[in-house]
Amino acid sequence: MTVSAPSVGDRAAVDFASLLSTRASRMNASAIREILKITQQPDVISFAGGLPAPELFPLEDVRRAADTVLTKYGPSALQYSTTEGHLPLREWIANRAGITPGHVQIVTGSQQGLDLLGKILINEGDVVLVEAPTYLGALQSFQPYGPQYVEVPTDEHGIDTDALEGVLRANQAKFLYAIPNFQNPTGRTLSLERRRRLLELTAQYGVLVLEDDPYGKLRFTGEELPNLYELGLEMVGGDPDRNHVIYSSSFSKTLVPGLRDAWVQAAKPIIEKLVQAKQGADLHTPTLNQMIIAELVEDVLPRQIKTVKQAYGVRARDMVARIREFLPAEVEHTTPEGGMFLWMTLPGEIDTQPLLAQAVERKVAFVPGSPFYALGGGHNTMRLSYSSATPTQIETGIRALGETIRAAME
């Protein structure tokens, strides 16, 4: 007896949702990216996205570097390459850090680095320590791997290391995720004293530190501090394979974001697994992009950092001045020493989620603070970015934001 296949009309509709993995069910859309969709109207002043200023991009330098690379390397610049990354670029990074290229992995944007580190480090139910608040993109990267988040309190000097000691004593954590320099979202900087204490405590309890440092070179006021990786290396006599800090940084904020070049530096057992994870993700970061970056790092990058720092410093001071001029005195704010963001805390009865819609009606946008808290909270907070705003936009936008907040307080 021959059984005919059911006709198209007889087939049951595919329940795609039921076929997705548990990991997929943990994925959430980025709150920031969703907000950016809302604010695409040209008349909306957006302080929402952490976008580098496009008018500062070194377009001619990138064009010349691309020509140089294609002339120097020919077809090799357009060919598949090694997973670890373009060796001259890895050597440049390693030399600055006092390590070997074997301790450096190039990744396609620091976001990929966070995802791959989550993949190789997090088992279902592992305790991951995060700042309260912390970078939303890191939470989005780690969440599919099933961590159990434990928040570490912060204040105006960054992570509260006294509180951290209690958290470490109470939890068997896998790693601490931290942004010591001009933290996203608050703009705060971890003090040198706390950096040293943080490393002592995490080493004592056998907890890795994942240091995310995309903004560290963008200091426009105050004294530059050593990063956690440098201090960790110092603690172990310069041996990178004994350093319990994993360091992540990027060329996106200092040079250009569109080339999507970033890196991770860590002990070799971590790097070896990152290589394997990256092979399964995208084989390697685009060869041409890496070669272009390598042509720019010696000459153009230092000049670009100087240009960006100066511009962001002016914009940050302008935004702080306008906040003090136009916002109610009850609104608290951070005063960043670098980076791209500042943080505002409103009177407790105001929820910034519905406030955003009211602000957009006045043609200004921000990011509500609650998505930056792994365990909820922060309903009366918001993040503002000044990096890509003009003086006129800052004045007009902060004035409109002040009107929105005052209306909500009535």
From TrEMBL:
<keyword id="KW-0808">Transferase</keyword>
<dbReference type="GO" id="GO:0030170">
    <property type="term" value="F:pyridoxal phosphate binding"/>
</dbReference>
<dbReference type="GO" id="GO:1901605">
    <property type="term" value="P:alpha-amino acid metabolic process"/>
</dbReference>
<keyword id="KW-0032">Aminotransferase</keyword>
<dbReference type="InterPro" id="IPR050859">
    <property type="entry name" value="Class-I_PLP-dep_aminotransf"/>
</dbReference>
<dbReference type="GO" id="GO:0008483">
    <property type="term" value="F:transaminase activity"/>
</dbReference>
<protein>
    <submittedName>
        <fullName>2-aminoadipate transaminase</fullName>
    </submittedName>
</protein>
<feature type="domain" description="Aminotransferase class I/classII large">
    <location>
        <begin position="56"/>
        <end position="401"/>
    </location>
</feature>
<comment type="similarity">
    <text>Belongs to the class-I pyridoxal-phosphate-dependent aminotransferase family.</text>
</comment>
<comment type="subunit">
    <text>Homodimer.</text>
</comment>
<keyword id="KW-0663">Pyridoxal phosphate</keyword>
<dbReference type="InterPro" id="IPR015421">
    <property type="entry name" value="PyrdxlP-dep_Trfase_major"/>
</dbReference>
<dbReference type="InterPro" id="IPR015422">
    <property type="entry name" value="PyrdxlP-dep_Trfase_small"/>
</dbReference>
<dbReference type="Pfam" id="PF00155">
    <property type="entry name" value="Aminotran_1_2"/>
</dbReference>
<dbReference type="InterPro" id="IPR004839">
    <property type="entry name" value="Aminotransferase_I/II_large"/>
</dbReference>
<dbReference type="InterPro" id="IPR015424">
    <property type="entry name" value="PyrdxlP-dep_Trfase"/>
</dbReference>
